[in-house]
Amino acid sequence: PLFQAWSYFRRRKFRECADVCSQLLERPPGEQVAGAGPYFTFYFILIQAAWNLKTRALTEMVYVDEIDMDQEGIAEMILDENAIAQVARPGTSLKLPGTSQGGGPSPAVRPVTQSGRPITGFVRPSTQSGRPSTMEQAIRTPRTALTARPLTSASGGYVRLGTASMLTNPDGPFINLSRLNLTKYAQKPKLAKALFEYIFHHENDVKNALDLAALATEHAQFKDWWWKVQIGKCYYRLGLYREAEEQFKSALKQQDMVDTFLYLAKVYLRLDQPVTALNLFKQGLDRFPGEVTLICGIARIYEEMNNISSAAEYYKYVLKQDNTHVEAIACIGSNHFYSDQPEIALRFYRRLLQMGVYNCQLFNNLGLCCFYAQQYDMTLSSFERALFLAENEEETADVWYNLGHVAVGIGDLNLAYQCFKLTLVNNNDYAEAYNNLAVLEMQKGHTEQARALLQTASSLAPHMYEPHFNVAILSEKVGDLQRSYTAAQKSEEAFPGHVDTQQLLKQLKEHFAML
User: Fold this and answer.
1) pLDDT in tens, 259-278
2) Which of 424, 351, 371 is nearest to 394 (CA)?
3) If you placed Cys at 157, which of 27, 33, 64, 428 could pair as Cys (CB 3.0 to 4.6 Å)?
4) What is the DSSP letter of 296?
5) How confident is the model at residue 143, as a pLDDT?
6) Which segments carry the TPR repeats (predicted)?
């Protein structure tokens, strides 16, 4: 039975593996032991092996790679006391929006998130919700998060405390942590490692996991780098970033590991020190030349710092090492699309299709690239496929919104109006659709409807400059110059380089000076 359980584990059939191990553990010793001596020792080893295997199987059922879990909750963003400098220099902070040094496309061409950074070509946990400046923005549901409540650190990847046992063991928890003698287990390295991962990932009891790791590293005379990394992970989860940094640095002195570099870079990014994280990744590349995860980490940081050209270079370097890296292909494709090169972007998205990626987002992007590359025969069929593959209303809303743009491009404003309406049917918080509907209403001469739609758009997305600018233009036309000036100032704050806003402000100031 133990060999069968091990076979299930290797084939990732963790539920069957845990069931077989449970049957082994439930057998009373009297059934197995015919006499004293070596056979009893063998049975004890067998029970230990079954316990270890079941622990690992239950852990794997809820395991989440800590390296990819870098989403920040409301409490971490609003109540963050780890800021090194409240007014950081441009290009040294991820919290300062609009500090572009890379010559990337402006917000007039490439949309930005509420944190002021351009929308990426690949959805990652860190891009799910922008860094809000007020509590109201933090509580408002981010459109890309696809959830009815704001992101918190406990949502999504992490299992809530004590709930995994109910999911994997209907009869109750497999291990009663309150009765464990952690000192005894810490002296058995092989059992201790499996037990630590069970407590950390399955039970999400970080405090007990930290106690076990501290005792185990003490037993190993502080020479085992693995335990130092685990202590660092516990400190990181508890929000003790400086202590985590010390543990990861100590582990790197003993053993160079790619994962340790990634964990340490996560700490620096959470402390808002992207330049230190970049230097760390480059040190890692000196020790592990061509390591894709390290190169990709550098590209992500440059992208978040709005340095698009450097990000594109590193993503190309990723593709030289691994030409099937989905994130790199998608990000380079989106960069070419927003740089007015839809034909080249189309080649990258077709490459993803050849690799077997088959989802709504890909066909949505293919449809846009085909339209702007003037390959009209493929445009509508791609959007039809995207609508068919859409898994939720937010994805459907994105497709209808892009179809509205296609309709505007071919001059069919009635179709565009219907598409934007369908966007709002699927997602009532779609600020871009409200803005574009308002523009269509303005062209029809419906001033009041346009004003109402623009007010809705600007309240839903205060980081967008378009609704503010359109309110300014509309108010100026009807003679409400004070409202026009206020809206133009908000537009300039959202996009300082917008020429039309600057010209409008100049005209209004001259008019006020004459008065």
Assistant:
1) 999 999 999 998 889 999 99
2) 424
3) 64
4) H
5) 42
6) 431-464
